[in-house]
Structure formats: C-alpha cells, structure tokens
Queue: 2 jobs
Job 1
Amino acid sequence: MPKTFDARTKWSTCVALQEIRDQGPCGSCWAVAATAALTDRFCIATKTQFNGHLSVEDLLTCCCPCAVSCVNGCQGGYDDEAWDYFARTGICTGGDYKSKEGC
C-alpha cells in the first residue's frame, strides 16, 4: 500500500472526482454519495470515456417505496438499496438539481 493516495491526482481528468456535490437542504446524502461513487467508478473503469455525472435526482424520484425500500426522497434513504436500484434499472445522466445537464 502506498503511504499516500489521492484519487483526484491519479484520475485528474475525471471531472466528478474534482467536485463535492451539494445536497442543499434535502436529506439526500445517501443518494448523493451512492451516485457520486458510481459516477467516479464509471469514469475510472472507462478510462474517461464516461466523464460526466449520473443523476441524483433520478435516484431520488424514481427509486420509490413502491419499487424498493430505498427512498423517502429528501427525508432519507438507504445507500445499499441505491446500489440495488442501479443494478436493477440503471440510472440516467444528470448534473446538479435544475441544471438541465444530462437526460
């Protein structure tokens, strides 16, 4: 193991690794964290062929209690259920809330 490691330096061209996403007043840390981690993994695994953002808003609004037990929107959710959602349904691209980035 190296004494130090900084993913931002190792994969400096992955734009999402250079940012800290803001959840604002919404209790969406579970969704922001899971989506950011998957975004970073896609960038790294594809050697920056994918170098954008995945949609936290998609996860917050589509991963509903009727489908799985992962979400109560801004009132919290479960990151492990978010990963199940990604595997089961996928997730669309998208930037910060109301940015109109992505699909």
Note: Helices lie at 7-10, 29-45, 56-62, 79-89.
Job 2
Amino acid sequence: KFNNNTIESAAEINIEDLPIEGKERESFVKIRVNQYFFRKTILASYDNHCCITGMSIPDLLVASHIVPWAVDKKNRMNPCNGLCLNALHDKAFDKGLITITQEYEVKVSEKLKKCHSGLTAFLISFDAKKITLPQRFMPAREFIEYHNKFVFID
C-alpha cells in the first residue's frame, strides 16, 4: 500500500517540522451551566443504564440531548429531551448515524451499515431493537421527530 515507503514519506511529513514538546495555553471557554442537573436527572430516569445497551458504568454514560443543545435553547434542560446513552452510542446519535423511531426502536443509518468492522457490527446489532424507556420523563415524540428529520442520516 505504501510502496515500501515509510508512513512519514507517504504522508509527506517532514520529521524536522514536528513539534518537540507539548505546550499549554490558557483560554476562555463557555461552560454549560446546569448541565450537571440535566445529567443527574437523565441518568436517574434511566436507572443509570444506557437505554440501548443496558450498560451501567456511570463514567461511560452520557445524558444525550435528542434535539441538540445548540438548536433549542428553551428545551436544553427539559428531561424529555434526553436519553441515557453510552459514549459510543451518544457519539453515533449526535452524528446522525443512529436514531430512535417514534416506536422507541433504534434505527441505524444505511451509511453505517455500509461500513464493515467489529465496532460498526456492534452498533448495527441494535438495529430495530426497542430501547429501555425511562421511569420518568419519557422522550418527547416531537424531539424524536426533529432528530429523525434533521440529524439522522438515512
């Protein structure tokens, strides 16, 4: 594949130009205030389990917004705009590679189905499976409809 060249040569990387040390700098960042409350509410509603896989490792669980945070200021803290997902499914959901249907089933994008790897096979294995619904704060159908229409890549 590289015609017996080094990776540096094939990628046209000049070793002399590589930074020698990692540096830090200070910057100002926006922080989502009350995000912790949203997370606690969502995880508690799903009994600290991913609604797709059932994973229960809190450090790997995310309170995922169905309608993205940046899109709908009014519903940022609305627990009916949240799903408890593991980090992998959260990323796939945010990128539109998976969605939740109006019947509360996982739907996997055709784009993802065309990829062939162990990781995509894991994601695809949940296609058409029902999610575990929360004890409180059912995901609102209008938010799911938004995700299907504007985020999901079919």
Note: The first strand starts at residue 61 and ends at 65.
